[in-house]
Input
Amino acid sequence: MAPGGIRRYHRSVPSLPPAPPADNDLAPVPSRRRPAAHRAEPLTGADAPPVLVEVHRGDTIESRHRGHVVQVDASGRVVRAAGTPDVPVLLRSTVKPFALVALIESGAAEALALTPPELAVMCASHGGEDKHVRTLQALLRRASVSQTLLRCGTEGAPADTRTAARLARDGETPGVLRHSCSGFHAASLLLSAHAGWPLVEYDDPAHPSQVAVRETVARLFGRRASALRACPDNCGLQTYEVPLVEVARAYLLLADPEGAAPDEPRARSAPALLRIRDAMMAAPDMVGGSSESLDTELMRRRPGRLVSKAGADGLRAVGLLAANAAAPPPAGDQAPQPARAVVIKIEDGDLSRRAIKAASVEVLAQIGVLDDADLRALAPFHHATVRTPAGVDAATASPRFELAPLAELA
Output
């Protein structure tokens, strides 16, 4: 035991094991080198994923973004797809709502009387605006936890361009709370403080807080914690690999925790998932930000109807709640439907994030969630355009795919 009663944890992050067997039970591999069997070779020709978004510069197609789309119905059955539904992906920040279940089920949420904005910012990839900072400052003060313990760093903070410009103008160095994952890290600190675990090195995969999160995520994705393939995200906490279709099914569970749970282990987390889902929908600006966040804009345009969360490297998952008398579908929607979910992955990682935004809006339009008025309002996301200093359109990213029901493709 180190001085001050702080236990030191051996930092050991296993490398990715080989590709999973057919039954999705993953077996960990101790080797620190990634085995050749797990290397994902790019697909070519007829096997390549379809083009989802093209970038036009003048009359020239400058680039193409290929990817995968999966929609599941209320039973978790795939009803629409483009590309490969079971392609393995890393959850990145789409894992955050499920990781937060560990905090709620520990009793910390009740003990701290966490509010919807506080819960929302802890499963967010926020812009680092003042309201995000103030919310986290108040929360950490109430929990008697110092923000100096946060280990997410400040790289890329703040993500909100207006806030970044103001800080630069004022000569202010961004603090750790402006990092987009600071709320996610704060959740691990609060869980540790509530459970009486050490607060330092809470980000170590062997720390009890991370073990608890891993076990929770594994259960909600229907897997064994010991077999869940993990690797570090950029912020330092763990993220996990699952097939793309399982991301869609997880967001179906988030959209309808009481109706979509396929087994008792997942059903017992319904109260926590309901609380997280409702917090995200009640405070969408805490999930993303005042501007530039498609997650926030989608939840604003369909209040109480959908929950949306992006992950880095071209991933977005959207859970669609069932329409009912209390929340009828808008005029542009199709007939009322039960809960469903859709997930989009851009194969090349989409560093600029233009393709995932364009494809996400297009998918939601094609399945009847967004209408023409929505598409006009979301045009900067749907058709992201780069302009010259003189204001002339230089390049535009536009979706180029049709998501047909699988029944029509048979």
In short: The first helix runs from residue 96 to 105. Residues 361 and 382 are 6 Å apart (CA to CA). The radius of gyration is 21 Å.
